[in-house]
């Protein structure tokens, strides 16, 4: 499919049904982060605009950059919680 095409219907998986990023902390405080996409951490995704499905409202910048920064801080023990 074309990744730049607009959605014609709502995705089949959303909310708690899908996990694009998973993070776990063990009892010994070891942390692991698994991402389903390297593009999530790319400059393209950091600066891309987003639009809410079924609504005309759009945002100039997605929250991917802030999300990635907070994940990395947590993963490297620079932050205690997400």
Report what the structure shows.
By secondary structure, this protein is of the alpha+beta class. It is built from two helices and four strands. It has helices at 43-47, 64-75; strands at residues 21-25, 31-35, 50-51, 58-59. A two-stranded antiparallel sheet has the order 1-2. The longest helix is centred in the last third of the chain and has 12 residues, at 64-75. The protein starts with 20 loop residues before the first strand and ends in a 7-residue tail after the last helix. The mean pLDDT is 84.
Strand order of the largest sheet: 1-2
Mean pLDDT: 84
> What is the first-to-last residue Cα distance?
33 Å
Low-confidence stretches: none
Shape: elongated
Pairing-aware structural class of the strands and helices?
A: alpha+beta
H/E element order: EEHEEH
Quick summary:
With 82 residues, the chain is an alpha+beta fold.
Keywords for this entry:
82 residues, alpha+beta, two-stranded antiparallel sheet, two-stranded antiparallel ribbon, 4 strands, 21% helix, 17% strand, elongated
């Amino acid at each position: 499919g074309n990744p730049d095409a607009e959605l014609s219907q709502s995705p089949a998986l959303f909310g708690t049904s899908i996990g694009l990023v998973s993070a776990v902390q063990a009892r010994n405080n070891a942390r692991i982060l698994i991402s389903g996409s390297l593009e999530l951490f790319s400059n393209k995704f950091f600066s891309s605009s987003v639009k809410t499905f079924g609504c005309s409202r759009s945002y100039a910048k997605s929250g991917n950059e802030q999300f990635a920064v907070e994940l990395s801080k947590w993963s490297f023990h620079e932050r205690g919680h997400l």
